[in-house]
Every structure is written in C-alpha cells, then in structure tokens.
Amino acid sequence: MDAVHVAFMQRAIALAKKGMRAAYPNPSVGAVVVYNGKIIGEGFTSAYGGPHAEVNAINAVKDTALLSNASLYVTLEPCSHYGKTPPCSLLIIEKQIPKIFIGCVDSFSEVSGRGIKMLLEAGREVRVGLLEEDCLALHKRFLTFHNQQRPYVFLKWAQTKDGFIDVDRVVSTKKQAKPTWISNSLSRQHVHQLRAKEHAILIGTNTAIKDNPSLTTRSVGGLSPVRVLIDRALRVPENYQLYDGTVATIVFTEKKAKHPNVVYKEIDFSKSIMTQILKILHQENIQSVLVEGGKQILESLIEEDLWDEAYVYQGVAAFDSGIKAPKLDALSIANYSLENDSLFHYKNTK
Predict the structure, then answer these.
(1) What is the spatial distance between Cα 49 and Cα 26, in angstroms, rounded to a whole number?
(2) Measured between alpha carbons, how far is 43 from 24 in angstroms, rounded to an integer?
(3) What is the pLDDT of residues 297-349, one digit of tens each?
(4) Residues 54, 77, 198, 309: which is the catalytic one?
(5) Is 309 noted as a catalytic residue in this protein?
(6) Contact 125/258 with Cβ under 8 angstroms?
(7) What phi and psi values does residue 288 have, to the nearest 5 degrees?
C-alpha cells in the first residue's frame, strides 16, 4: 500500500472526526483533494442539511483548473441520490476529477455501490478499500443504523474493584442516598467526552430518581445528546433536570401523558422493551445511543445481544455489598489508565 495514499486517507479520516456529532443523522465523511502530491482542498460533512464533505473539499480549492488533474480521497462512497443536497458523485464528475480513492462502500440502500458505478461509467479511475477497516470503524454508527435498523449501542458503567456498581440506596440512609462516586474526576470527564460523540443517552427510572442527572456534556462542551428515559409508570418527578427543556428528551412509558419539554413514546412493557426502544429510536433517526444504566437495562441489552461496544470504568474503592455489576462475555479490546482508575473497552464480536 502506497504510504502517500495512506497519508492522504488518514487526513480524510481525521477531518471526518471533526464533524461527527453535528452531521447526524448523516455520516461524518472526510474528503481531501490532492494535486501533484499536495493537498489543495479538504473538508468534512457540514451540520445536517449542509454540504457534504466532497462539496466542502472541492469548494476549498482556490484554482479549480487543477481539478481536472487532481485526485480525491474520501472516507465513504460518494452519494448518488438527491436528498437535502444533490449527489456528490455528480459533482465529482462535473468537476472532471479523474481519480477517486474511496475508503469503504456505503451499504445504505440508496447508495450501495451506485456512486461508484456513476463514477466508473463516467470514465473515472476509482480505487475502493484504501484503509477500509479504519473507514468502516469511522462510519460504524451510520452503517449499523442502516444495516441493522437500529442505533449503534454503547454500554457504560463504573464498578468497584470488587465488582459493584452501587450501594443499595433503596434501603440506605438519607445521607447515603446521594450518588456514590466510584470513578475519579478524570474518568467522569471522559464520560462527558463519550456523551459529546453520541446522538443519544439512555437511562432508566431508578437511575433518574436516585441521581437526578442532567445527562449533558457540561464538563467538556460540545453538543449534548438527546436524553432518553425509560419510565414505565412516570415516577420521575417533573421538577427533575430531565424535564428542564434544555436538551431534547424522549420518555418511554406505558402511560398517556403530555409535557412541553419532552416527547412521550408509548411501548408495551410485556414484550422486549429494548427491541421496541431501539426500533423507535431508529425511526427518530437516532444513530447511536450511550446507555448509562442501570443494571436491569444493561443486562437486558447484553442478554438480547443488542450492544456493540462497552466502556467499563473500574475504581479503587470496594463496597463489599450492593448492586453487582453486569457481566460481559467478551474480551476487552483496549485497557487504559485514568489516574488511579482503569478503563476497559469491549467490542461485541458475536
């Protein structure tokens, strides 16, 4: 593999990561225009409804006469259909760019090889699969959303060194009813970085009542995810932060209700709850969801094999008793140290 080509695609991948959150539900694509071994234009996908990466990269080229002898590096197959914007494949053809390097094929049914076909039929030289694994990983949310008809699911929890995620706060004293921090401040900041990347964040009734969380990215900035609450009997008080209207919020329940700051979705709690929720989130164009608990929700996703990756933070404290952490039948793909905490990153390979 030519190191020069690799370097240009690596740049395209780095660009794509800059637009990841704002582009939802579109994939955040990176594109680089190269002439005579030098980058003359680059770009990534704009916020939803705006220009795609290829358009931004081409528009960044000052001397458009160079395009007819340039190469385009793009992380995902250029689109071939009319959506919010015209097809990128058509623009590439119109600008007479002769060589296109594509990281991975877009398996979305409205593209799925059609963009490549358009380019080939127009006489362009197309190379597919440059840093393919890296590009597939980059676009995993988008591809899972379309291929499996559900959001990409991240699990997250913190556990003590002896395997507990919480004390039993249901029977605890009033003082102990406050959140019991297992992880350190650096780990908690890392969680906010995860939130800033994902489209939605999900918790259950008990977590909401015990912690009264805001579920925002307040420690790192950036866009906060859509908040998703499972609250069968609507037990979470409406004066809690989830109802404050600062962030889009969806509540799954079996009750009929109205509130100006949330959207209620009725589901059948006698059937698979998570299957229904993921289906509805897909219908709402939610591409990824970070599940922050509690134990019952996490375990149901694990048991039904409805998860893709997991982040487990292990602190140095020991509880001796309390609520046991979920068990994952998976090997960690990476381990990190966050000061005195350990972070284990898992991927579902089933």
Answers:
(1) 9
(2) 16
(3) 999 999 999 999 999 999 998 998 889 999 999 989 999 999 999 999 999 99
(4) 54
(5) no
(6) no
(7) -150, 155
